[in-house]
Design goal:
Blueprint: H1 2-13, H2 21-45, E1 57-58, H3 67-89, H4 94-101, H5 104-117, E2 124-125, H6 126-146, E3 151-157, H7 162-165, H8 167-170, H9 174-180, E4 185-192, H10 193-196, E5 206-215, E6 233-242, H11 252-261, E7 268-274, E8 278-285
Parallel strand pairs: 1-2
Antiparallel strand pairs: 3-4, 4-5, 5-6, 6-7, 7-8
């Protein structure tokens, strides 16, 4: 009995070489249900407490020095990658993975923009939509060009003093701040060196990463009406990184863990160039 169960479990996780309609239909059903449930929950838990309006757009492209837009790029990228992965597991053709899987992030986030568009408090954002498209484009473009993801998006975070000034808006604890405090966030494009030179002796796990961040922000924009003064500035980073999925291990558990957490940029030495402080070296940047 145990051997049979083990064999079934092993077979379940193994990618199907041909189209498995049962898997595909299950994926579509679960994904559709989760998407609908998430949108309904968002409406009930968030949007319904704010006044509604006719559908409208806003221009928030100058807010938070575009840090929120990088968040949209990354979310769209990884939701699309997840959509591709589950269809790949189902044996769906690469073409259909790109059409129906890789575009999932853009489709889902566009639905969220529609909810924003009917809220008087916010409004749909052209900038957000373009950022969503950029995340999907980064994913699809690499699959079309290289049939693999050589450049992936990553995220890192460190706590800052700014959240103490506006804890209700920037977060009261570490988890809230990691989501709300743009001052401590950095978004990275992490490129795998070996993928561009596969005949070389570069370690397969070694990446080079370019990062973008911003600090000095207590509000989305600098306005005279704001109670607290702020001096926002941009930060650009150059650092080394590790692609955890390319580390050799026989442990399936570790492989799963590495795959899940690979969106996190591990702390490493980094060179920072900012519009306020010029050039600065960090022994470890989070």
């Amino acid at each position: 009995m145990s051997l049979t169960f083990y064999g079934q479990t092993k077979s379940f996780w193994k990618k199907s070489d041909t189209l498995n309609k049962k898997r595909r239909n299950t994926v579509i059903g679960i994904q559709g249900g989760l998407t609908a449930g998430t949108l309904v929950a968002l409406h009930q838990l968030w949007y319904k407490d704010f006044p509604q309006s006719s559908f409208h757009f806003i221009n928030d492209n100058k807010d938070w020095l575009q840090m929120d837009k990088f968040g949209h790029v990354m979310t769209s990228y990884y939701l699309g990658k997840m959509g591709m992965d589950v269809l790949n597991w189902s044996g769906v053709s690469k073409k259909n993975q790109l059409i129906y899987g890789a575009t999932y992030g853009f489709a889902f986030l566009t639905a969220v923009e529609v909810l924003d568009g009917f809220s008087k408090e916010w409004g749909a954002s052209f900038g957000d939509i373009l950022a969503n498209a950029a995340g999907t484009g980064l994913l699809v473009g690499q699959e079309l060009l290289w049939n693999e993801q050589r450049i992936i998006m990553k995220y890192s975070f460190h706590q800052t003093k700014y959240a103490q000034e506006r804890p209700n808006s920037l977060g009261k604890n570490y988890l809230e701040q990691s989501l709300k405090d743009y001052n401590g966030q950095t978004y990275w494009l992490s490129a795998n060196i070996w993928s561009f030179a596969k005949d070389s002796n570069f370690p397969k796990w070694l990446n080079i990463a370019l990062g973008y961040g911003a600090e000095g922000m207590l509000y989305s924009r600098t306005r005279a009406a704001n109670n607290l003064a702020q001096n926002p500035y941009r930060q650009f980073y150059l650092s080394l990184d590790i692609d955890l999925t390319k580390i050799k291990t026989e442990s399936k558990f570790l492989k799963s863990v590495f795959s899940v957490v690979n969106f996190i940029k591990l702390p490493a030495p980094a060179l920072e160039i900012s519009t306020k402080n010029g050039i600065k070296f960090h022994y470890l940047h989070f």
